[in-house]
Design brief:
single chain, about 240 residues, alpha/beta, 6-stranded parallel beta sheet, 3-stranded antiparallel beta sheet, 7 helices, binds iron/sulfur cluster
């Protein structure tokens, strides 16, 4: 996957873990069926294989306190943490990007190049990893000339989660209501369409229950509180 390094430094989630953020072009000929064709951004531990980082809990620097990281494991048969609930397969995009980075395939982007990489296209902030791990100015440059973006953060408990440009991922209705009081827009996984809170949430149009009538590339509803729209919920599968 051709791409460029847009950040190489310490994680803002713990102020110590060396991390990288790499912007890569999605697969145009076979785009992700839910997101469509978007610029993808991978936030990875710089020196630890992402599978091992997750298995050992050393992924705090890229995922913070997201509950979907799972429970650290020492089981030699396991590749990742126990009960990991994250929908991103680490052995696919994240591992490919990590290996390519260590083969020296990605040049470092200048600020001007970061602007150009994101221009005239939709951008996905944190295809893997939490956008809040990366300095805000990187995202501001990347989306400054984009045609829109999506992003999700679980990090409001430990730092600024960039809620103006990212959805606040919540685990339940109580968390959602608290976030709405703070002016945030939320993204929530529900078990059935009946759980949608009318007037506050809409069903993700890319979901099966909504008839898969859009994709993130076109919808761009998940772009934080800077747009005045309802929050988003999606039924778990
Ligand atoms: S609501 Fe729109 S932007 Fe958000 S996940 Fe669904 S399709 Fe993507």
């Amino acid at each position: 996957m051709p791409g460029k390094i847009i950040y190489n430094g310490k994680s803002l989630l713990d102020n110590k873990t060396p991390i990288i953020a790499v912007a890569v072009n999605g697969n145009k000929s076979a785009p992700n069926s839910k997101t469509g064709d978007m610029l993808q951004t991978y936030i990875l531990t710089k020196d630890i294989d992402p599978r091992l980082a997750n298995k050992t809990g050393q992924d705090f620097g890229i995922c913070g306190n997201c509950p979907h990281r799972g429970i650290p494991s020492t089981d030699p048969k396991r590749a990742t943490a126990e009960n990991r609930g994250c929908y991103v397969r680490i052995d696919q995009g994240p591992l490919i990007v990590y290996k390519s980075f260590h083969k020296g395939k990605y040049p470092i982007a200048t600020d001007q190049e970061i602007i150009e990489i994101g221009s005239n296209r939709p951008v996905r902030l944190g295809t893997y990893g939490d956008p809040a791990a990366v300095p805000r100015n990187v995202w501001d440059l990347l989306i400054s000339k984009s045609t829109g973006h999506t992003g999700y953060s679980h990090q409001s408990k430990i730092k600024d989660s960039y809620s103006d440009i990212c959805m606040h991922s919540v685990e339940d209705k109580k968390e959602a209501i608290a976030a709405w009081k703070d002016g945030k827009r939320t993204f929530r996984i529900i078990q059935s369409v009946d759980e949608i809170i009318k007037g506050k949430e809409v069903l993700c149009p890319a979901s099966k229950e909504a008839g898969r009538k859009s994709v993130c590339e076109l919808c761009k509803l998940c772009s934080g509180s800077e747009i005045k729209k309802r929050s988003v919920a999606i039924v778990q599968h």
